[in-house]
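Can't paste images in this forum, so I'm doing it all in text. The chain is below; anyone willing to post the predicted structure tokens underneath?
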Amino acid sequence: MKIQNETMLVANEGSTSLAQRVAERLGIEFSEMIRERFADGERYHAFPREVAGRKLVIIGSTHTSSAHQELLDLIQGGIYCNASSVNVVIPYLGYSTMERAKPGTEEIPKGITRTRQIFRARPNYVAFVDLHSEAVLHAHAGDISTNHIWTDSLAVDKIKKSGFENYVLVSPDYGFSKRVARLASILDCPHTAADKDRYKRDKTIVSQVSSVVKGRTAIVCDDMIRTGGSILQTAQRCLEAGATEVAVMATHLVMAGGARKKFENSPVTRVIGSDTFPGRKSDTLFDIYSVAPLLAKVLTKHLKLNH
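Text version of the structure:
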């Protein structure tokens, strides 16, 4: 009851649906922000009820620049309105693949710089879901509590319930192979990794996949699907190595540009993912599971410990 009475849960616009599911799991009311847009493009926000003295929970993916700015506004608004604490959950962190600049360039590593903007807004707690790189966790001075939420339990449960038999997990590169090996260990199934080389910012070549996929259903796993290029190449290499079927699983289904059409025209039979990226719903291609139960569990523990 204390969590119910003392906590106020809001979201930026893109993450409203996910936040509503989290609120339902927590057994608290979801507070819809009051939003208006002025003729010159400026945006008005107001909390629907008093914030002062409450633990404010903000759920917000930063999948666009507008969503990122709205999250900053909500954090600063909570502090301005005297919330007792400001607790942020970022289901999908935009620019997360840009966590470092290449030597000899003047690139801006926006994965770090934009996360620093979030930390400098002065929330008390920030949790991220399945980060591409944990480097962003350290983009503050050590005075903010951070949490990296892994969705392994949800992914394993989803695979178990998906009806696949005689399957093998495949990583599209060696960088993600440790996570895939961890999932395979829990599922008690084989795993392998493809050989991948990147030759441009959004261009990769996948050369081969182990014959362990022969006669099996290959489930290609990654943290996110952006353009889908490397995953689709991996799927093709799995079929060439003897896989009988190829499915794909990723936490964050960004699906930029014409990615969805590419998958619809590919031999991939199913794309499994979560609802961390706004707008993703199950349909003829997507098989979506929600991270809401996991986020609610993490928030319940955090809010109780910080009573």
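The first strand starts at residue 7 and ends at 11. Residues 2-150+292-305 form a domain with the Rossmann fold fold (CATH 3.40.50.2020).
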